[in-house]
From TrEMBL, chain A:
This is NADH-ubiquinone oxidoreductase chain 5. Its main location: mitochondrion. It is an enzyme of class 7 (translocase). It comes from Gadus morhua. Residues 139-423 form the NADH:quinone oxidoreductase/Mrp antiporter transmembrane domain. Its EC number is 7.1.1.2. Residues 428-609 form the NADH dehydrogenase subunit 5 C-terminal domain. Residues 73-123 form the NADH-Ubiquinone oxidoreductase (complex I) chain 5 N-terminal domain. NCBIfam families: NDH_I_L. It catalyses: a ubiquinone + NADH + 5 H(+)(in) = a ubiquinol + NAD(+) + 4 H(+)(out). It is a multi-pass membrane protein. One of its GO terms (molecular function) is NADH dehydrogenase (ubiquinone) activity.
From TrEMBL, chain B:
The gene is NDUFB8. GO terms for cellular component: mitochondrion. InterPro entries: NDUFB8. It holds the Pfam family NDUF_B8. It comes from the Eukaryota. This is NADH:ubiquinone oxidoreductase subunit B8. It comes from Gadus morhua (Atlantic cod). Residues 64-84 are annotated as: Disordered.
Length: 612, 182
């Protein structure tokens, strides 16, 4: 084996071993020591991150990628499944970032979940999720990817429903599983098509063998999978509902890693999509609709975690738009930079929530700029990075996407929606900062505001470094596959910035309304639409379950018996023969006329039949 | 022993009240499980007492041959619709002990269908949501018809379209190529 390949596979193996060791320790019957979460789990992730830097530095210096196939799982006459890993540009860069973010989140969770008696189990779940995510990201065939895909889905269910005594948390976990399942239908459809038409689930083989085939159907399946996993419009309600889980779960799963799995799948399969205009247009339009719709919903939410959740959904829509522009690498860049600042935003939210004694409503926060300066600074930096402030992390990816959008031959409405969503991003980001950090406090004075614990400060610090320099570092060290368009009119170049500044100024203007007393603001339809999340949960979560459950119950308990006994069985025979019998007996009236008529009719019939 | 049981079963069957193997159940013999649609006031009162409801509130499900018997028709409200602040016997289910269960109780638990009143009426919600989606689809169609793109034109080189550099003769007058004016 080539030394580089050996280095890649051995570091991945070492990473898996380091991450699995704490999990295997829990299978013994010995009780865990109190700081297992901190001493074993967090240390494992930190070590795994440091190990993953080795292949990263090797890749950045040599540019060498590798695919390794180790163990043959099954061999059929048409399909082979092997355990194979792909160390390419995408996986080698994403794994260290994911581990860095996870390390910070786990350290934060040692403080956040400190009072939870089952904290060790929580960390176990998070570690299992991380292993599943790494399997997904490094998979070279769809079967292995599906294993990771399902793994992250199940761990998401377990973690959202962490406080399972709360009915709303159970409902949210159920929602996540059901919506992801609908997406899984698409993935399985795509896999089945590929297995039957291309006879392979191996990425390299699929790309070569599908050159001349019409790939619309499997691509639609993959897009459905991404719609489910990455909360695109139509299958998006589970993501804001997933905020029922603890904040570290929201930070890790529902912002940085799990929700990007759908986009990652499309990035991996992008060579299949390059020449299929239908799939690209669908991605573009779906992504644009998602980003605008969820940004609209985020404008009027009052729960800090919900705002950040809708922000995540909006950015996922933007990533989908990028894939629709045939720029998978820019989408990947946005995944990487987004992980940093979104995780930081969630950790800041968690710090604020715990500091205010589990208060999540932004209308009951305020003045934290003086009371929790580090957290509010990180919140501000994260929000600035999110809106694409020049030269922070988000700028390099987001601005590149908007430029690519402006200079491409695109659907004009998709372009409009994306720009509107970019301005909305600035609006709701300022809304969060205004309500949380600025003004005077709107909570009780005796709140346990605490920034003294290094378990809170160090993760925020690390992610802040990532949010500021992450984009620059990634951009400096990678080679873009597709040449970007570098010449465009100044209006297009500055469009993203202009639109964000416009949003910022609008939001500032609206924020000043809070300190002035106007006449009562009349309730407007768009406000209801936005607050009620577009009425999507209200309609879909009532109508469809009611129909299917009612029908199911009726069929199982009433209709089966009714059908077999009354419609097709004994009673049906009775109902069918009774009219015949009564008609026949009614005819026997004793009148000669009736009998003569019948005799004549029979004669005519017999004559006719014998004549033909 | 078996013979005695068989005789009792035959006797109960011949009474014409129950059929089949359910006659073997003790509750059936005393008439507890099997229910008929209540017709007179006595049967209604007995059914209301059985289901722990007041006689005024008791309303049997209409007899359409679906086999509901005398089971009461309770209001189609979900558990989520009930007062969260009241001291229920089972706070997570929002239900008191021995309260009559809706026939579709498992559909109305808090994790499933919710019948709580919405901010705006149902018809308004549907109109707004599907109107929004329809509008978006229409606008995407228009956006596809009139896409946004940067203007591009065919290449135009200086020096008479690079006549000499492309190996043209200096004596021959090259033809004018003008795709656009700068």
């Amino acid at each position: 084996m080539h030394p580089t390949t050996l280095m890649y596979t051995s570091s991945l193996l070492l990473m898996f071993a380091v991450l699995l060791y704490p999990l295997l320790v829990t299978f013994t019957s010995l009780p865990l020591n109190n700081d297992w979460a901190s001493s074993h789990a967090k240390t494992a992730v930190k070590s795994a991150f440091l190990i993953s830097l080795a292949p990263l530095s090797l890749f950045l210096s040599t540019g060498m990628e590798a695919v390794t196939s180790s163990w043959t799982w099954m061999v059929t006459t048409t399909l082979d499944i092997t355990l194979s890993f792909k160390f390419d540009h995408y996986s080698i860069i994403f794994i260290p970032i994911a581990l860095y973010v996870t390390w910070s989140i786990l350290e934060f969770a040692t403080w956040y979940m400190h009072s939870d008696p089952l904290m060790n189990r929580f960390f176990k779940y998070l570690l299992t999720f991380l292993v599943a995510m790494l399997i997904l990201v490094s998979a070279n065939n769809l079967f292995q990817l599906f294993i990771g895909w399902e793994g992250v889905g199940i761990m998401s269910f377990l973690l959202i429903g962490w406080w399972h005594g709360r009915a709303d948390a159970n409902t949210a976990a159920l929602q996540a599983v059901l919506y992801n399942r609908v997406g899984d239908i698409g993935l399985i459809l795509g896999m089945a098509w590929l297995a039957t038409n291309v006879n392979s689930w191996d990425i390299q083989q699929m790309f070569i063998l599908s050159k001349d085939l019409d790939m619309t159907l499997p691509l639609l399946g993959l897009i459905l999978a991404a719609t489910g996993k990455s909360a695109q419009f139509g299958l998006h309600p589970w993501l804001p509902a997933a905020m029922e889980g603890p904040t570290p779960v929201s930070a890790l799963l529902h912002s940085s890693t799990m929700v990007v799995a759908g986009i990652f799948l499309l990035i991996r399969m992008s060579p299949l999509m390059e020449n299929n205009q239908t799939a690209l247009t669908l991605c573009l339009c779906l992504g644009a609709l998602t980003t605008m719709f969820t940004a609209t919903c985020a404008l009027t939410q009052n729960d800090i975690k919900k705002i950040v959740a809708f922000s995540t959904s909006s950015q996922l829509g933007l990533m989908m738009v990028t894939i629709g522009l045939n720029q998978p690498q820019l989408a990947f860049l946005h995944i990487c930079t987004h992980a940093f600042f979104k995780a930081m935003l969630f950790l800041c939210s968690g710090s604020v929530i715990h500091s205010l004694n589990d208060e999540q409503d932004i209308r009951k926060m305020g003045g934290l700029h003086h009371l929790a300066p580090f957290t509010s600074s990180c919140l501000t930096v994260g929000s600035l990075a999110l809106t694409g402030t020049p030269f922070l992390a988000g700028f390099f990816s987001k601005d590149a996407i908007i430029e690519a959008l402006n200079t491409s031959h695109v659907n004009a409405w998709a372009l409009t929606l994306t720009l509107i969503a970019t301005s909305f991003t600035a609006i709701y980001s300022l809304r969060v900062i205004f309500f949380v950090t600025m003004g005077t406090p709107r909570f009780l004075p005796l709140s346990p505001i605490n920034e003294n614990n290094p378990a809170v400060i160090n993760p925020l610090k690390r992610l802040a470094w990532g949010s500021i320099f992450g984009g620059l570092l990634v951009m400096l060290n990678i080679n873009l596959f597709k040449t970007p368009v570098l010449t465009m009119p100044a209006e297009l170049k500055l469009a993203a910035l202009a639109v964000s500044v416009l949003g910022l100024l609008t939001a500032l203007e609206l924020a000043t309304l809070t300190s002035k007393q106007f006449k009562v603001t009349p309730l407007r339809t768009p406000h209801h639409f936005s607050t009620s999340l577009g009425f999507v949960p209200a309609i879909i979560h009532r109508q469809i379950p009611q129909l299917s459950l009612l029908l199911g119950q009726k069929i199982a308990s009433q209709m089966v018996d009714q059908t077999w006994l009354e419609k097709t069985g004994p009673k049906a025979i009775a109902n069918a023969t009774t009219p015949l019998a009564s008609a026949t007996s009614n005819m026997q009236q004793g009148l000669i006329k009736t009998y003569l008529t019948l005799f004549l009719m029979t004669l005519v019939l017999v004559t006719l039949i014998s004549a033909t | 022993m078996a013979g005695v049981g068989f005789q009792r079963w035959v006797r109960t069957l011949s009474k014409g009240k129950i059929s089949g193997i359910s006659g073997l159940l003790p509750a059936c013999r005393s008439g507890e499980i099997l229910t008929y649609f209540p017709i007179n006031i006595g049967e209604i009162a007995a059914a209301a007492k059985k289901y722990n409801i007041r006689v005024e509130d008791y309303k049997p499900i209409a007899d359409n041959g679906e086999g509901y018997g005398d089971y009461p028709q309770l209001p189609d409200r979900s558990q989520q619709d009930r007062d969260p602040a009241y001291q229920w016997d089972h706070p997570d289910l929002r239900r008191n002990w021995n309260e009559p269960m809706h026939w579709d109780f498992d559909m109305f638990i808090r994790n499933r269908v919710d019948t709580s009143p919405t901010v705006v009426p149902w018809s308004t919600m549907c109109k707004q949501l599907f109107g929004f989606v329809g509008f978006m689809l229409f606008m995407f169609y228009l956006g596809d018809k009139f896409p946004a793109y940067q203007p591009v034109g065919p290449k135009q080189f200086p020096y008479n379209n690079l006549h000499l550099e492309r190996g043209g003769s200096p004596d021959v007058e090259p033809e004018e190529v003008k795709n656009y004016e700068i």
